Amino acid sequence: MSEYIVEMKNITKRFPGIVANNNVTLQIKKGEIYAILGENGAGKSTLMSMLFGMYEPDEGEIFIRGKKEVIASPKYATELNIGMVHQHFKLVENYTVTENIIMGIEPIKKVAGIFPKVDLKTANQKVLELSKKHELEVEPTKKIESLNVSIQQRVEILKMLYREAEILIFDEPTAVLTPQEIVFFLRIIQGLREEGKTIILITHKLEEIKQVADRCAVLRQGELMAVVETAKTSTQMMSKLMVGREVSLTMEKSTANFRKIILDVANITVKNEVGFPVVDDVSFSIRGGEIFAIAGVSGNGQVEIGDAITGLAEISTGSITLAGVELSKKSIRERILAGISYIPEDRHEVGLVLDFSLENNLLLKNYYQEPYCQHGLLKPFEFKQTSERYIKKYDIRSGQGVKTITRSMSGGNQQKAIIAREIQQDSSLVIFVQPTRGLDVGAIENIHKQIIAERDKGKAILLISLELEEVMNLADTIGVICSGKLQKIEAAAKLSKSEVGEYMMGVKSH
Question: Which segments constitute the ABC transporter domain (predicted)?
């Protein structure tokens, strides 16, 4: 019997214009938490997609429990007791929790001894028991569309456990979670390991790897750089292996040179679909040359503030003024032309048209203007030339250059494309919402530098982030939000991390 539950030997996988994995060998022991670390686009997800049967390797072999296997489909991977939670969940929104979990293996009972019917009552009970056993409490009859992302993730985990998976693959599992949810998630996977499960964790979050992983394989541009024991390897060494250079996440920035007020938000209220105020009488202003960060626990109205300024959400009271121009009644395009750039929280739903090419996404806000359009005709050469410049400047990695379909790119490179497009608008106000979510340390460092560079050009920067470290690192001024109200606005230098945390939780007020 092999010492390893999973062996991937000399795996190579090519796509048009790119070698995603080049002669990679991994050996994973039963019952360990094995991390796969790498930059965005390093080939991590591709490698694990082959283990789960979504792709087949062009070269190399896969062994499960010592036996060579050709894993031609996710169905066969499931038969081998392999499960995978993808970065973007594979759930049917208008189905219930239980309906998603049992899909494809529905328990059947006979009505009147003849007619087959899905036994939902029994399935609901089984899902409830399974969720309690693994501390993954869910309501089996709730529809997916009504659940937040952390509960949806629990459903994906339960889907694997319901199918009795022993090898559990998690692709960027904490990218969409709040700091509090991340702590809970890491506890869950440690519990699963104690039950004898083998956990494979695709990530680029070094601190999480240090907390839970036994060993870590580091990929760079599709090649295996090293396999290290996490307890004996510093995060600095892992980040250097990952990006090929020293990385600093503590930003050096010059003293802010504040200019006149660019954005003035006065007493705005935003109500949700049932009329409840999710942003409640909020006022603040941002000067040119200032990074104003809003810190808060997820779901406290901070995203709606960004949406209200850009026109994606309607305000019921108050005013929003940009460089002296009242925006409240203006369209989204009018606000863009007035000088607003917006990096949204949800890059798929709001930031990109996924089935457009990369060049079309990069020029989504300018395609109708000269030099890209003349006399109603688009100018392909101008599209290509400008897009290639952005790709080079912002290190956007794509298999087929400007013609790459955006959906096929890694999440991190999709994010780089949005940031390139928005910064290149040269707007007086740039709104960054969760700008580094799902990015590796090298990309985070670059984006932090870009945010500071925009501030130093005299732009007003609104940063909305759940990452308290990011807020403390970048902000000149911090506004802390709780239950839709700004609890405190203060110069960043006058607030400690613990004070910000107390305001965020509502345990401290003015």
Answer: 6-246, 263-508
